[in-house]
Amino acid sequence: MTTQANVCRLLGSSDRQPIVSGRVGFDSLPDQLVNKVVARGFDFTVLCVGEAGIGKSTLMDTLFKADLADDPHTETTDKVTLETHTYRLKESQVNLRLRIVDTVGFGDQLGRADSAEPVVEYINQQFDNYLQEELKIQRDLREFEDTRIHVCIYFIPPTGHSLKALDIACMKELMTKVNLIPVISKADTIAKNEMIRFKARIVQDLAANDIEIYKFPTDDKTVADINQKMNELAPFGVIGSRDEIEVNGQKVRARLYPWGTVEVENEAHCDFIQLREMLIRTNMDDLIERTHSIHYERFRKKALANMGYLAHDGSNQPVRLSDLIQIKRTEQQRDLKQAEEEVHQRFLQKVTVMETELKSQEKEIQDKSQTMKKHFADAKKKLEESKWELEEEIAQFRKHRAEVQAAQAQAARETPVVPPLDKKHSRK
């Protein structure tokens, strides 16, 4: 009790509000923070999702009033690739490191998943890069290049009908990963009344498919009214142009047609001003904060859970790193022992199978050997019999030949010899 009383005398109770007499100086803390942040600069990454030729690069040039155009991609590809372009912009004393991520080949594939999967993998990879930097023992997040996606502008073709199956499938995948803002590109290609009906149909399709898009925050009273009106106006029908045309003595970004001129920054022609106001001038900080506090935290929680950074009793309470290491070591030893036992059992099974096969082969070889021996014995016996018969025939032949020779000799001895006649006597 005495200790608590001393603390109250020194620091004051929790509900005490002492009056400060004279300026102390901590009211300059916001200025200090602003100066520090301005000196460091800002990172802002925009992901543009849409088919080729839908106006992604042109809209980015128009939004940031800079020549950000790169070589257009006209070839059809069999897979979606994401290309990142980094620009350093400066306005007044504020430095902005802007990244534009383009989805090259989006919509060229036959399967809807083939278009959405690479985009989701890219977003997760940027989250993982930031998480790996956070987990380092020696880290410097102030100098770390934050490449997380802060906003995804999804370009909807101005068909005037409804969302395509590809758009629905992709937005359902992206809505939990990034701040999703759908826009209707090339809004000057459909009439104003058609645009109103098209927007209503898109809103219906989004609600029917439970697709959540980014809503401009209304908790800040200073911007609550304008943000609420802009939420009702979404999705924005926008136009982009790199050309400046003189209208009423002023140069404005516009598109010139034979029938007239469409001004990009004319609210009667499109919603470009509203998009720029909401995206850059009013809610850029909220997009960055929401990316970190909601989308990244969702990814981080799942990633750390997969790494085992949660208690095993299901209480979702953090554990000490030493305890976690011991738990993981025990799990690894148990898994290793189980794996060794499985390998041993598989080895024994293979040995048993091989022994059975070898015994079967040995019996087969023995049977063949016995058969061959019997066959050889029979053949040898037949050969010996044939030899004996041949020797008998030879003996008979020799005996018969001897008898014939003896008979011929006897006949020669018994035949008389007739002397030859004299030649002279024969002529007479």
Overview of this structure, please?
The chain has 428 residues and is α/β, with parallel strands linked by helices. It is 53% helix and 14% strand. The chain is built from 11 helices and 9 strands. The mean pLDDT is 83.
Summarize the model shown.
The chain has about 425 residues and is α/β, with parallel strands linked by helices. About 55% of the residues lie in helices and about 15% in strands. The chain is built from 11 helices and 9 strands.
What layout of secondary structure does this protein have?
Layout: H1 2-11, H2 29-40, E1 42-49, H3 56-64, E2 81-91, E3 94-104, H4 112-134, E4 151-156, H5 165-174, E5 180-184, H6 192-208, H7 224-233, E6 236-237, E7 244-247, E8 250-257, E9 260-263, H8 272-282, H9 284-307, H10 321-414, H11 423-427
Parallel strand pairs: 1-3, 1-4, 4-5, 5-6
Antiparallel strand pairs: 2-3, 7-8, 8-9
Helix pairs in contact: 4-5, 4-9, 8-9
Number of helices: 11
How many beta-strand elements? 9
For the terminal residues, how far apart are their CA atoms?
Answer: 192 Å
Q: Which blocks of ≥5 consecutive residues have pLDDT under 50? A: none
Residue share in helix: 40-55%
As a whole number of angstroms, the C-alpha radius of gyration is 50 Å
- SS-based class: alpha/beta
What number is the mean pLDDT? 83
Percentage of β-strand residues: 5-15%
Compressed to H and E, one letter per element, the order equals: HHEHEEHEHEHHEEEEHHHH
Biggest pleated sheet: 6 strands, mixed
Biggest sheet strand order reads: 2-3-1-4-5-6
- Which term fits the overall shape? elongated
